[in-house]
Amino acid sequence: MKKTGYNIIQFSLSKELQHGMMVSILAGELARKAGLSEEQCHELSIAGLLHDIGKLEMAKYVYQKGQKPLTIEEIKYVRLHPTLGYAITSQNHYSDFIIKSILYHHENYDGSGFPSNLKEDEIPIGARILRICDVFAALMYDRPYRRDFSWEKAVAIMSKSKAKILSLPITNHANYNAETERQENVIGARIDEARRKAGLSLVDFSALLRQYGVTMSPSGINKWAKGSALPNAYQLVAVCHALDLDVDVSYFCSSHTPVLNDAGLAKVREYKDDLIASGKYKPQPKVVSILKYIEMPVSNLAVSAGTGEFLDEGNFEMVSFPEKSVPKGADFGVRVSGDSMEPVYHDGQIVWVEECETLAVGEVGIFVYDGDGYLKVYSEQEPNEQQRDAFTDSYGCLHMQPVMLSYNQAYEPKAIMPASRFQVVGRVL
Known about the structure:
The chain is of the alpha+beta class. The strands form two sheets. It has an eight-stranded mixed sheet, with no helix packed on it. It has a two-stranded antiparallel ribbon with strand order 1-3. The N and C termini lie far apart (79 Å).
């Protein structure tokens, strides 16, 4: 009896689900090893389950042929399943991370994959993880043309093709210990080191931080260096901007070390000296980054994120700021007083304001209400029965009642009462 041929790919819903579940589990775990966020790990688990969903659309065109071999044109069509998966997941409003991971999960690191022949870092990290997990899971299951492999054999096969599919930034999180970092006060030490390298005194550094919206006394900065206090996230970001520190988080950890060991660094210095001695190369002068400053008006009186303080429109002083710290469109700056807009806006912070007369619901603005200045979120509500007349114009049209909201839930909304003076000063940028 003549042996019946087979498709190089055969469709079985149960097997596809089994494969998808394995890829889902592997992708979530590998994503954690690669240092992705917990949200991305979760989304990649979803992408692993759905990565071959495009095959459902293909089944009615290809897999119903039975056991006949696929033609060249049919194989080309099979290669469309990532694109079909992209279309299906897009229509069902999955996240961009999930959708792109599915679309590019057959791209190879060397550029030999499909559908777009992407290579190296052009391939989204999610797709690179799915590619590895997809190949491993496929090797672990039977195919019409071969038996399944042991996991040892699967790993060996993948290792031979590592240039094609294996390239991930693996992070070892076990090296970090928060308690050790606190005891060694690496954050404070790094900040103090960078401050000294910049030639800034504690007083000068305090003044510089104020230009970035952080009010910190010289003694407070010194507490960072001694480890008796530490900056919060917003202060640390301001420090990095002020000191022009283009670093990743590892800079503030005790594990931060040069890529080369001492012997390697010595070799680099030796090689550099040889190049200079040859007369063909000369040391280049160090390029000093010069910050461009602009003059901006800043109110001498604060707007309250709490109980309310008077905002005098004419009481402004001109202050110099690094140009990059002032958002485009800003007309003036004003300091925040109070904590009702925490955690977004902080006491002592300078916010930048674009002058305007109206705001959309949900926008943050500066307001004057009964002589007090406020930093709040603008909202509206329908007036109650007692106030409806006051908010109804001469044409009989009912207007919404303005409401000022706080981010800090400890503060109640402040509804604007009839016959009160209320003015929108501007929009916070």
